[in-house]
Protein 1
Amino acid sequence: MNAVVTLHGLYKDYETDAGPVPALRYLDLSIEAGEFVAIMGPSGSGKSTLMNLLGCLDVATSGEYLLNGRDVGGLSQNELAEVRSSVIGFVFQGFNLLPRASLATNVALPLVYQRVERRARRERAAAILQQVGLGDRLDSLPPRISGGQQQRVAIARALVTNPRLILADEPTGNLDSVTGREIMTLFQRINRDSGISIILVTHDLNVAHYATRLVYLVDGTIQYDGAVAEFHEPAPELP
Amino acid sequence: MILFSLLEALQAMAANRLRTLLTAMGIMIGVAAVVLMVSIGEGTQKQVTDSIKSMGANMLVVRSGSHSHGGVRGGAGGVQSLTEQDAHAIALLPGALLAAPMVQSGVQVVYGPNNWGTTAIGTTADYLQIRNWELASGRDFSDSEMQSGMRVAMIGQDVASELFGRDDPVGRMMRIQQSPFRIIGLLSIKGQSLDGRSQDDAILVPLRTAQRQLFGSRFQGSVSFIMVQAVDDAAMTPLQRNIGLLLRQRHHLADKADDDFSVTNMAEVTETASQITGMLSILLGAIASISLFVGGIGIMNIMIVSVTERTREIGIRMALGARRSDIMLQFLMESVIITVAGGVVGIFAGIGLSLLASEMFGIWAVITPMPIVLAFFVSMAVGVFFGLYPARKAALMRPIDALRYQG
Ligand SMILES: Nc1ncnc2c1ncn2[C@@H]1O[C@H](COP(=O)(O)OP(=O)(O)OP(=O)(O)O)[C@@H](O)[C@H]1O
Ligand SMILES: [Mg+2]
């Protein structure tokens, strides 16, 4: 078995003033290497919560999470940082680039925390930016380029460490549909060419169609898990 | 990694130039104050040690009049109880090397049209030896000049320049209180005494000349001081006691009578003086340190603001694999750069101010490398100390909270 992600009875609740709010209820899920998974579900169904747990940015209340076969429950903050650095690449809805650093510096940032030497960092960043079609904009600043271009830079940054898994929470949420399609094509190409697993959250079934598998969450439980083509989105509940 | 954080810190600082500048200014003022205060303290201390050294080594001073309750009380009708013979007797005590009797009084000296008020000291040739005072030119009193009380004088540098300008005074005649005196010697520069007066503003004449011809009837065979030099440091205390015993005997004092003289151990005086100046240095340094501390609080304040502002950025970095130590280093680096930059500028400002102070106000400021090196490392330490809390605050954030932060 070659699972990148294995969840057993993953449970997460948030402590609030009104008591604990359950966000994920006993999830069982397994994602193989090279899979491209879209996660959908109504607002508040726990998609972001799941992504944060998968990305080792937060820890589950109970249950088991194996990343690359390694149990990440009970790891220290530094060990989690190490796991994020070596296994995972993040793409955020709001791009989250450092506005004052050049594109090349932004892309190279994860390598800094892997203690890669400066020259090698820059070479690698240039090569990856080339792959996402921004090879001629190495020294531009993020605020000077379009949203679609910024998201390409963010994808390049996620790719630069050669991760096993890319996690993207609504990566097209801030983009128009045409640009969104370009970004999704890029994800598809990365998934096919390098076999990196991609897990992506979206509200748009059209976006989900670029994936090979769809997981549909409702109230913190999995309602559907299967091929995207066979999924029929339930009609949104009227408020 | 260090180099990278350095560059990043510089970038972050460049993005907030005014803020960085103002924060660094706080440190700069603090460091400048430390350097200034310490150099003033050191200057004062050096001034004191210099004048102590110029006083002569292992010296005891015997004074006429009793020394009670900290004050010198003159004998009835200003009678001077000490005599030249007392000095000779003291010189024969074990542990005593030399003893010079002396009288002194203010006089007017005149050369041509130049007129100057100074202090005349009537003493013996031993005086110069005890004070470790050399002649710049000319010669000492001869035995016959001492014996017969001839009108010869050695003059200090201040008197020489007042009366003769740049000319060589040796061999010339001048008037002291109307009487003509031949100048036989020019004393070397001695500098300030402990009370801040110039020791070079004085003239020396033979004891007998002063007693008989200069000071009228005030010192008929008596002297006001006897300067005594002990053979070494260890001999000082026993010698001081023995002088007391000897003089009581010589002056035929009854058992219950007060001393009609006092003996001061100059080593004790100098020790007290250097203790006081040492305390002054510490006090000045402490006052200056407060402003450095205030500067440090400024750093802490700004760094806390900076951490809060960049919470989201911290979250991004953590998501991308930054360890807590990486985040910590980043912010520490920033505060250390600010303080060290402020510190270096402050050092130069402090040196400048010290020079200005000694130039304009005649304050003694001595710049030594010690406080400068110290100020540098202290400012660095201030950066680490006051940067530590904000940096820890940044490093201990949970990545998920930092990422979710809406700035
Ligand atoms: N930090 C938090 N504190 C308390 N409750 C939270 C917190 N984050 C999320 N929740 C709650 O957990 C549940 C799941 O939230 P989550 O953000 O995972 O939903 P989502 O599926 O990503 O929604 P959306 O589509 O709006 O992004 C919701 O009920 C939400 O209110
Ligand atoms: Mg969400």
Protein 2
Amino acid sequence: MSEIVIKNLNKYYGKNHVIQDVSLNIDSQSFTVLVGPSGCGKSTILRMIAGLESINSGTISIDGNIVNDLSPKDRNIAMVFQSYALYPHMTVYNNMAFGLKLEKLTKDEIDSRVYDAAKILQIEELLQRKPKQLSGGQRQRVAIGRAITRKPKVFLFDEPLSNLDAALRVQMRVELAKLHDQLDATMIYVTHDQTEAMTMADKIVVLDQGKISQSGSPMDLYHNPKNLFVGGFIGSPKMNFIKTRILKKSSQSISIDLLGQKSFLLKKTSTNLKTGDEITLGIRPEHLKISKDLKNAWKGKVFVVEKLGSGTFLYLDKEGEPLVVETDGDSKIKVGDTINVAFNPDKCHVFNANKEVI
Amino acid sequence: MTFFNFIVYVVIGVSAVLSYFVLANWAHDYLVGKFSKKNLQDSIFRPWIFMAPALIILLVYLIYPVSETIRLSFFDNYGREFTGVSNYVWALNDSDFRQSILNNFLWLIVVPTTCTFLGLTIATLADRVWWGVFAKTLIFMPMAISFVGASVIWKFVYEYRGAGNDQIGILNAIIVYFGGDPHAWIAIPFWNNFFLMVIMIWIQTGLAMVIFSAALRAIPEETLEAARIDGASEVRIFFYIIIPFLSETIVVIWTTITILVLKVFDIVLAMTNGQWGTEVLANLMFDWMFRGGGDSGRGSTIALFIMLGVIPIMIWNLRRFKMEQER
Ligand SMILES: Nc1ncnc2c1ncn2[C@@H]1O[C@H](COP(=O)(O)OP(=O)(O)O)[C@@H](O)[C@H]1O
Ligand SMILES: [Mg+2]
């Protein structure tokens, strides 16, 4: 069942059309991640769901009710901000109890909810402190705790981990995923970090300049990007892109020019393509193999070697962006070596001149 | 010629100060290096060398006058004969003095509170209307006027001409226009105190408003949004989130204006000179000290009472300042 249904949502800031006809279904108890580069409108969508931002046209419904004109407090949501947005003059306890007091819950009920949340987040010892006396990670826990105590239907997170250091971010990522399992709540999570999206999401919604570029499960987006933008955005290191043209097109396959070295046969085709069309070939670093095989291969010179332990990334010199190849962690290849790289034709993505996949 | 003199004095003054620091520092290094094996950096004398001018100025212009005032308060009107506490006994029994104490209290209660309240209200509301900037400019403007200047302006506002004449004071003019009777506002005992306070409020509200405006800007929007999501109404947000955020600012403004009010003098002098029950301590002190031959004993005694009022606020301020520093 869909918890949140967004239909033809539009938002303008002056003449700036920030959200362009976005439609989206978010399943009950799912963990949906809105991801995209800075300024693509993620926060704006989230804030419209929260009721902090007005809607120019379109509707948002939560639990079957259109909430366009409801105030934030009547939407049964809670939000966690990037800046934590704690109340600085209140203790951690009061930060978490503030909303509950406004709901006029009994003292016992407030107590039990705050202690439960504190226990889940392991901040029981901090309850009497002020936000000033907490570290960034602890503050973020309090902010999450404040959201939990209200027992909302929907949790909204706006880049909650961006202000934390890398190690803490990884840790909190795991804890948030655990929290999602524990609470059975719907969570919508905004981030510009594709790793966060890939690791936490049930469903990723990739936004590009105010439009949904593609949505689906992380693996779906990873393996079947619908366009050049998603292909490049999801996955780290980035997918390699090679600009090229169609040499010959047959009914079953196309042959292309691969970096001027060899004619390369792909079992993909489309009626919209013709010989001579410009296309972009995309392939992920892990789908390139160092081998002696000369079929569907290309020779290049290594100019950077990145050793990560578990794997090694080789940067090969080519015109435009370098070609990145992933290989074993104990690879012996050095800077300056010329290596032969075989392309896995099944893992190649072909994007047409409109940047859509074929 | 005066301008030339001015330049000369500035040059002499600045170079005297500079050479004091350079020479004293040099002499210090020379002497300490000669008589002590310790590291020059650790010298306990150096801070004193650099603080000495400030300390001396403090001594001459602050400590001396205070101790002299205390001394004079125990002497007769010429400061010649010791009279014990007779000046204090006189003060406590003097009706003008009692009236002044009462009025000062009245000022103290009304003015800082009103200024703070109005300043905060205006700063909050002005951000919500398009003509807010214009309104704030208008309200800030009186800040540029001296108390005496402001008093002159308000004297015209309260100006009274006998019934039947054309009223040139705007207040009476309005009242007469609507069919009322004109009044000599500043001569109506008790209430006239408030008419004088209006002047101070008119001037100081601008200051409060500007400072509150800046402080309001510093409140992060996301915190207010978090409160909105938590279900707080705008009124609650104001009282539970914004006011605590501004508590430091409120205290600063309130104490600043309180201290100013304790010393209120110019307005009363210019408007009523303490007549019709508007006397305040500072004006009373001025009266005794410099008018009718002068009585340094009684004048000093009154001055000390003013200081007595300011001191607790000062101490409290300093403690708060220290606590802020330590945090
Ligand atoms: N209050 C605002 N006024 C004007 N433009 C805004 C405002 N908030 C956001 N924008 C613009 O809307 C676009 C989307 O912003 P936002 O949703 O914050 O992006 P992000 O995806 O980084 O969260 C950006 O181009 C931003 O400049
Ligand atoms: Mg954002």
